[in-house]
Amino acid sequence: MEHQTWPGPETAGDELRIDPREVERGLLELASVEAVRVVAGAERPIDEIHVLAAPGPSPKQVVRDVEAFLLTRFGLRIDRRLISVVQLGGQGRKGPKRIILDRIVVEQTRQNLVVRVRLLRGDQAAEGEAQAAVSPESRGALAAEATLRALEGLWQERLRFGVEAIRRVLVAHRWVMVVRVGAIREGGEGFTTVGVAVIRRSDEEAAARAVLNATQRRLEQIPQGTANN
Question: CATH number for the 99-220 domain, one of 3.30.160.270, 3.20.20.10, 3.10.20.740, 1.25.40.10?
């Protein structure tokens, strides 16, 4: 599959106007965000962002995810001091089980780079694999593809996924991975969604987490079959 990029966001200016409700709906797509309130400003697009975060990522990581999302989706750079995070303890909110990135394995063969991803959802697990010739751009793209194959396994092939675009973006001196995912459900209904994740350990891990950030909320609304172990 050819992985294309899309134009970068426009630089935010004095005339930039943003609908706080639209920002809230977008931020709720992030796997690390349970609830969010955005307060519009009189002299700037946003005065405050209050986030109720899921267990797992550190509050600093949640802030970075929010920063990356705002820049890539809305072209808005925001002072991180305007973002407040309260994190849930324990197992988080009741309801559908969250998808967890269990492990990523990267292997170099004579000809190809092979990436395997294992996902967990409750007591169910599924693995996905992707491989291609080695190139600087292939590592993140293959991890994204492998993550999508694992998601298809968890949902018993009731959905088909594809990576529509993937790119690295520099946000506030940190590199983030941005992935646009397309999906088709049984019956032909489809959707497109975008996920972002800060690159911490590797491009592969960030790409996998970006895919989960893009798809987590959507998948909670779709009945799940028996997972492949």
Answer: 3.30.160.270
